[in-house]
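Protein modeling request. Please complete all fields; requests missing the sequence field cannot be processed.
Requester role: graduate student
Desired output: 3D structure, token encoding
Chains: 1
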Amino acid sequence: MPPKMMETKKSHNQLTFLEHLDELRSCLIRSILAIIVAACFFYQYIHQAMDFLIRPVGSVVFTSPAEALMAHITLTMLGAVLLASPYILYQIWNFISAGLKAQEQKLLSIFLPASLFLFILGALFAYFIILPIALKFFLSFSSSMLRPMITIGKYVSFVVTLVLSFAVVFELPVVIAILTTMGIVTPDFLRQKRRLAIVIILIVSAILTPPDCVSQLLMAIPIIVLYEISIGLAALINPSIHQKCQSCARES
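Delivered output (252 residues):
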């Protein structure tokens, strides 16, 4: 076998630091290219997407010549990220899995579709459940003397922030499942740190959402529910890990 072919067979653990960086760079480039391709495809349907996005609020206005254009660009990037998310997650997990053992790679094959499902579920939950509730609350302050005139730039920014934030935080069960599998956290640890976790969740919700208590609570409550679900998931994973460790100890 030629030397160059043998070099390509080098395992992930044998790669140098610079070679690891080169792999990471390749993953980032492929992910960016995927977003660009998805953006070109999504832009063909930008007007239908914009109508769909504006539907919950009825109508919007723009107060500067470039505001509508920037809103279309922002929405295009959101649509591109959502469309390319399966491929981006595949690149991330592919980079991570190269350094894992066979058993860990099997678990990874479960975590990958689960993370994709939760990402999309979080985005849909934000748009169809949280957004109408938030808009109904905010618009309830209007009156005959106080009419809402929502600009397209502010509205798209609000929706994009809400949707992407929920899509990301819905990954919490997968993150905790991975940490439990690695032995970093346990169900007892998660239960003991529940109060601290709630405080952190409230802080994160305040950072990710617009500066109002309603948006913060609308994000914090689902995350707290996800945290409780994650404790149950960790409780299911932890015994199997403990049994595996005991069997390995007996064999040794």
